[in-house]
Amino acid sequence: MYPPARPGDPLELVDTPALLIDLDRFEANLKRMSGELAGTSVKLRAHSKTHKSPIIAKMQMDLGAVGICCQKVSEAEIMYQGGVSNILISNQVVGEKKLRRLAALACQTQLMTCLDNRENAVDLDSVARSFDTTIDVLVEIDVGAGRCGVAPGADALELIDAVGDLKNLNFRGLQAYQGSAQHLRTPEERKSAIDFAVACVNKTLSELHSKNIDCPIVSGAGTGTYPLEVESGVYNEVQAGSYIFMDADYARNLDKDGQFISKFEHALYVYATILSAAKQQQAVVDAGLKSLGVDSGLPVMSENDEVDYINASDEHGVLAWQSKNVSYEVGEKVLLIPGHCDPTINLHDWYVGVRNLRGPEPYVESVWPVAARGCVF
Ligand SMILES: *Cc1c(COP(=O)(O)O)cnc(C)c1O
Prior knowledge:
Shape: globular
Number of strands: 17
Order of helices and strands: EHEHEHEHEHEHEHEHEEEEEEEHEE
Radius of gyration: 22 Å
Bound molecules: pyridoxal-5'-phosphate
């Protein structure tokens, strides 16, 4: 598949729809996170399910991340092949086929995975033994998200004990991610969700302590809540992913003054062309459901807040406005902020990295593959 642009192209020559990175803002976001964690005892284990790119993962590691998270074994394979080491699969890996793939990868690089089930632990141990390797594991506890994870406290201890009895598994710590807290809008709601998560971790840690079981890692947090996990004193890794690009949904989170949080700036766009301007107060772009993830809301216009993206179909998006000041011509290009960055990225083969997007003479500096696109195995 040909990329929509080549390095050196001026912005006007980028074909659409294209997944565009504002490189200046993107780099500022990377540095901001690294700077914030620099004075703390908490490390970034950046979530690569956002970007699916070993190139970006290595930039995060160069700026101090201890490792990365993947959601799937096949993503981890791509990251490893791209030169990334220290990978946590922050998810359950189930079934012999995947466990064998996981063990094969663990023979080659530093790898951890999550568990919340004893049978799954037994299966993983036996595959690891047949590969003559040991696998590091985090036991996942449910800290309030109601998805995966054993109950904190006694249930967690029981599973951790079981893992301890399995010779080819190493218990390395707790996975304690509160996913449903990330987009709670107010700081009070986020704080109360993470206070609960921290209490769940503490309850489990005290069980472990009473049995003299070491728990070197407590990992969790995303872009919406990580300052709270950092402050908690119990987490020592944060797994933020979206902070590098942001999206329209994250931009609706509020700070303590009731303002939209703007610490990390939008750095990811779908660049689109006006296909039709045949109607009054309406235009149609060439970016619809096949280039934009709309699960967390429709995209938002980057440069003109008088214009709304009101409807997405396969290959079309309808823009509408009331203002008399707005007009578009066929062939004009616009920047759309995706509603949700991760699923949007997964629809594209290439990132087009643009330097000086908001300055004079913006140009394409880099074209990177979305290397782990479609890695759902
Ligand atoms: C998605 C995810 C994250 C990152 O969340 P962001 O909101 O993208 O920062 C962290 N940990 C786990 C387990 C996740 O699934």
